[in-house]
Design goal:
Distance between the termini: 54 Å
Domain Quinolinate phosphoribosyl transferase N-terminal: 37-127
EC number: 2.4.2.19
CATH class of the largest domain: Alpha Beta
Largest sheet: 6 strands, parallel
Function: Involved in the catabolism of quinolinic acid (QA).
Pfam families: QRPTase_C, QRPTase_N
Helix content: 40-55%
Pathway: Cofactor biosynthesis; NAD(+) biosynthesis; nicotinate D-ribonucleotide from quinolinate: step 1/1
Structural class: alpha/beta
Number of domains: 2
CATH topology of the largest domain: TIM Barrel
Number of helices: 11
Strand content: 15-25%
Length: 304
């Protein structure tokens, strides 16, 4: 079962989390708090004012735009400068073309230049994940199969990257080791069997959802018999995947609905074929671990 509360329209970025990640990102760039910019400070007068556009340099889907006003607000506060006026032109989840203006900013030039790289790093990363996810969501449209993310995220940015997956039309799986039990191959080896591993999890944490990774049809059937109602069908070829789906679906009149996920080495060119096997989900680690950034830039307007 997937936690739908993570994927609802209300599941936006937590402002306190955004503030914290921006603070840490600025500290990294400025060398601590309040820090310094040894290029901008001597070259830009404190009272200089400019207008800037946040621009997409490539086609894609945007996400994480909340970091833009947060970054300039924190920089202004750090250095006692007036606030920047930010007008967001695009919204998270929007498809944009190269050259599109995503936001307009006007305020102290020092603030704009100090905040530039920090806000770009975060928004470009999130937008890259959203763009990669959108390709999968488009490929699976109409199949009845949904693309899921994984825990293969950038350390410290999981909240942002999983939010970006939602912006791109994907669905979040578990957030971490704490909210859903996932019995994988190493757990089975350590426990002795799928049945033993599932029983141990249920005894230790009876209130959590249990998912089981199955490498074979026999393991899938065993997992259902052990009480699992969500299976990861891992690295199965087309014939084995189809056989596993048929075997599990045949059990459903007795055990009830079982959700099935295909996982392992999935690519866009086989997405429709895998979906046709009858799985509910495909989990794709590449959404987060391999998505290139969406190239964004902050351009000062001339003659201001």
């Amino acid at each position: 079962m997937i936690d739908d509360t993570l994927n609802s329209d209300a599941a936006d970025l937590d402002p306190s989390w955004v503030a914290d990640v921006v603070r840490r990102t600025l500290d990294e760039d400025l060398g601590g708090f309040p820090g310094r910019d040894v290029t901008t400070f001597p070259t830009i007068a404190p009272d200089a004012v400019a207008t800037a556009h946040l621009v997409a340099r490539a086609d894609g889907v945007v996400a994480g735009l909340a970091v833009v006003p947060e970054a300039v607000a924190q920089v202004a506060d750090r250095f006692g400068l007036p606030p920047v006026d930010v007008r967001l032109v695009a919204r998270d989840g929007d498809r944009v073309a190269a050259g599109s203006v995503l936001a307009e900013l006007r305020g102290p030039t020092r603030v704009l230049l100090v905040a530039e790289r920090s806000l770009l790093n975060l928004a470009s990363r999130a937008s890259g994940v959203a763009t990669a996810t959108r390709r999968w969501a488009d490929a699976l449209e109409g199949t009845g199969t949904t693309v899921l993310d994984t825990r293969k995220t950038t350390p410290g940015l999981r909240v942002l990257e999983k939010y970006a997956v939602r912006c791109g039309g994907g669905t979040n799986k578990r957030m971490g080791l704490h909210d859903v039990a996932m019995v994988k191959d190493n757990h089975v080896v350590a426990a002795g069997s799928v049945t033993a591993a599932v029983a141990a999890v249920r005894a230790g944490y009876p209130d959590v959802l249990v998912q089981v990774e199955a490498d074979t049809v026999d393991q899938a059937v065993e997992a259902v018999g052990a009480g699992a109602r969500f299976l990861l069908l891992d690295n199965m070829g087309p014939a084995a995947l189809a056989a596993a789906v048929v075997a599990v679906r045949a059990l459903e009149p007795t055990v009830g609905r079982v959700e099935l996920e295909a996982t392992g080495n999935l690519t866009l060119d086989v997405a429709a074929q895998v979906a046709a096997a009858g799985v509910d989900y495909m989990s794709v680690g590449a959404l987060t671990h391999s998505a290139p950034i969406l190239d964004l830039a902050l351009d000062l307007l001339p003659g201001d």
